[in-house]
Please model this.
Amino acid sequence: MGDQAIRVRGLGKRYEMFDTQRARLLHALWPDFRRGMHEIWALRGVEFEVARGEAIAVIGRNGSGKSTLLQILTGVLAPTVGEVEVNGRVSALLELGSGFNPEYTGRDNVMLNGLLLGLTRGEIVSRFDEIAAFAEIGDAIDRPVKTYSSGMLVRLAFAVQALTDPEILVIDEALGVGDFFFQQKCFAHIRALCDRGVTLVLVSHDLRTVRDLCTRAVYLRRGAADFVGDSQLAIQRYLAETTGQVEHAATGVAAAVNDPIGAPAQALWRRTEPGTGPALLAVELADADGAPVSSVRMGDKVLLRVRFRAAPEEAGHISLVLKNRYDQVVSALSTLAAGMAPLTSGDEPFATLQLEIAMMIEAGFYSLKVGFGPTTGKNQGTVLDDTGWLGPLRIDWDYDRETAPFLGMFGLPMRAQLIGRPADAGFSRAAAKGGV
Model:
């Protein structure tokens, strides 16, 4: 395999479903009997490679085949078709604590799991103090794990798996363990493992974690690898899945060479088939210097450039909606609110609108949608075209070390001015004391 830690070729996993138990029995007795049987492919035609020491994520919507893929990589499931080669000792964080015997103590379970991972008894004993210290469960290590809280259980399970010197670390939605500070500890340890050359395969719906830990990603869609490459481009495709209309920079710079609107390869969104009538053509997100961005500091200015087409009789307004990770709309902006007249590209093939926005919203991840259409009343309009939800845009701030310009969900425009003390402003002593 050379420098490849994992190689997947033509991977597929099929499940057979039966309408009745009778159909299942008849098929077991006579394999050619298929009446009442249905085939469901959880994975089909998946191919990718992971180099040694690389951090790669697997993303996709629920039911896309992510967990099935990890179970095949770790040997829990066998593929129906295709080949999987894994070169190195694998430590898997799939369902933390699922392999613990509830009647055994934490200490006994550490020993048992270490042996199952291929360590010798001496190796486990030499690392036991480190595992116990990492888990931070104190004297509970000598109590049966059936007395543990769920947080204590996953702490110990994570410590066992992560501290056994894996060559390949596979994680499935297991980084939300424990409290905030223990999560920080887990992330720090995983980064240290990656720095030491451990190969990381991560499944997570937390796109911030994906982008922070992984340079590449496999985007699964309905069991197939829709995209394999840069993690940011994979995230963009994942978030745009519901629109089915967009072409991202994942297609490469060559796709933009013949682009009639000249949108850069780093465009956040680009329409591949403009069609006829009014339409949004491309959306770019840049910093104050015009460089493409996917993250900015709280309060920084960003430039949103929207290329659109609209004949004079099709004039309308462009709007921008921002949502936080909890699906709450935090702001909605429009050219109408900015006092602009309805927009048109005139006789030109397209026009470009630029919005300069101060990102006075709290640190976190946000999705955005751009729309175009005419107004129909006060604060109302018809959407003729939109981009679907794009992003994520990350707003950064170190609340522990820097004084924030505001606290809460968003900042209000404010100007502070000391206009004088009561005596300086001509107030009487009685007024200053609250009298009349």
